[in-house]
Amino acid sequence: MFLDFIDQVTSILNDAVRSAGFEAEDMELGPSQHADLSSRIAFRLASVAKQSPKDVAEKIAGEIVIPKGSFIEKVEALGPYLNIWASRNFIEGTVLAIREQKEAFGGNFSEGRILLEHTSANPNGPLHVGHIRNSIIGDTLGRILKRAGYDVELHYYVNDMGRQIAIVSWALGHFEFDESSKPDHAIADVYIKANAELNAHPEKVAEIDKLMQLVEKGDAATIETFDKAVDLAVSGIKETLKKMNVAHDEFPKESSFIRSGDVSRIVEEIKATGRTEIDNGALVVNLQDYGFEKTLVIQRTDGTSLYTTRDLAYHEWKGERADRIIDVFGADHKLISGQLKATLNAIGKKEPEFVIFEFVSLPEGSMSTRSGKFISADDLLDQIKTQAYEEVDKRRPEMPDDFKAKVAEIVGIGAVRYDIVKVSPEKSTVFDWKEALDFEKQGGPFIQYSHARACSILQKARDEGLWKPEEPINTALLVEGSEVSLIKKMAMFDNMLDQCAKELRPHTFAIYARELADAFNQFYRFVSVLNAEDEQLRSTRIALVDCARMVLANTLDTLGLGAPESM
């Protein structure tokens, strides 16, 4: 709805700007503390017209013509700003649209095909706490883009032939594999032992180098051992992702781009640009004109490719199959992502969009799979579920254990996902489960509880025969400040989706979810719903609660959080 409001505002401002004798395309609309929207267009036009911004704003305001039935109530100049207020048509139309469209409200306004890659952790052990921010940011972005209307395919790019995988493959032939453990944890165990062995006996590193050469040459037996190691780890990683409500559509493997000849072909394409040179026997790409002093190595001295080389082939492949390609990378990939983008540009290929995030940690400190100093995502999720159960038990001691366990799982995963995604990607964060599970703070459990509260109100209304969902309502009765604020906040659902889809900043949608839940709770706090004396007003307010329930459910689903009906 808010996107329609913006479209109407843009149209009437365009007309008024032209009538006032100016020319502009972008109306520079944004939020305002004084109105529903504000335009800064007068600032830009003032320098061209050699007039004060205040005078320009007043001239434009004087030319405003609002069509009958518009979503716009009025436009006024306040100093250099043009402030715009929504009309009753907008308020009442939003409620009717939610009741009609239900789960579809606010979405499906964009089109195009997107390939989004996230997580892609090396399959040499389980996901640890440092990985899950990638998974949660990527999955949330995918959900936002899908709800906006894009055709989204989610990828986990599997490193199945790098040095770490060669070590795992070697380890499986030298150390006992614990069949009773979750496979990714068992892989980590032999990987850690292998690294200790290689550190103690450096001469054995030559065996790892030999394996890497054999797999790149297509040796069937070596490939089979690599595949076994990778498949074991990935099967365990998929289980962990499922616990976090994260899923991928495809798991493309690096080796497929070697076998298809795409890697060899892209190396030749890069050579044809004249940018390559030999540095200590390795083939490197000179990207100085793109601002990179450090060259990009695309072939080792022994002729084998690197992760980056295969990644270039993978991105070329993705670019041919999508309108947008998006990667979620950790801050340690900042340099390589820039070099990757520059190299693709140099050979005329589609460039990816990047979401670069700083790392999440626990108060216990940093993690390393190589040394065995890590806290697995599985351990964290189990701990969170246990703590969530204790919180639910405190609040609902009278409920059976299966209810407590079900709610604890929904709330626990929701707490982790929300606490991680609410922080802007470029900021590092420490995950504190006590704060994440605090029902009193405006985090994941607060938003989920708001949905459960709406469900409880509606159930009570049905039980007492106060409401029939199919009956028409009188939206003109919704005039209280908290009612209007809630409706306007719900109307912004599509605008927030659009903003996040364009800017790839999912934390702003998390902030919106918190604000929506707060608006609903403020509404219920300040107006009487089930006890409203007027029957028609009561029915209309109950319908507004139902609207809030639907938009809260849509919002929670977009964030990958469960929407419990009772907590």
Report the portion of residues in β strands.
5-15%
How would a crystallographer describe the biggest sheet?
A: 4 strands, antiparallel
CATH class of the largest domain: Alpha Beta
CATH topology of the largest domain: Rossmann fold
| Spatial separation of the terminal alpha carbons | 31 Å
Please tell me the overall pLDDT: 93
General shape: flat
Q: Please identify, by name, the CATH architecture of the largest domain.
A: 3-Layer(aba) Sandwich
Identify the CATH homologous superfamily of the largest domain. Answer: HUPs
What's the tally of helices? Answer: 21
Structural class determined from secondary elements: alpha/beta
The poorly predicted ranges are: 366-372
Radius of gyration: 28 Å
Number of domains: 3
Which strand order do you get reading across the main beta sheet? Answer: 1-2-4-3
Q: Can you count the beta strands? A: 13
Q: Helical content, roughly?
A: 40-55%
Describe the structure.
- Residues 447-567 form the DALR anticodon binding domain.
- This protein has 567 residues and is α/β, with parallel strands linked by helices.
- It folds into 3 domains: 2-86, 2-Layer Sandwich (Gyrase A, domain 2), CATH 3.30.1360; 118-361, HUPs (Rossmann fold, 3-Layer(aba) Sandwich), CATH 3.40.50; 377-558, Isoleucyl-tRNA Synthetase, Domain 1, CATH 1.10.730.
- The protein has 21 helices and 13 strands.
- It has helices at residues 2-19, 41-49, 53-62, 88-101, 129-148, 163-172, 183-200, 205-217, 220-243, 254-259, 262-271, 307-319, 334-346, 377-395, 401-421, 433-436, 444-463, 481-491, 493-503, 507-526, 535-558; strands at residues 29-30, 37-39, 72-78, 81-86, 113-117, 151-155, 276-279, 282-285, 296-299, 324-330, 353-357, 360-361, 429-430.
- Helix 1 (2-19) crosses helix 3 (53-62), helix 2 packs across helix 3 and helix 6 packs across helix 9 (220-243).
- It is flat.
- The model is unreliable at 366-372 (pLDDT under 50).
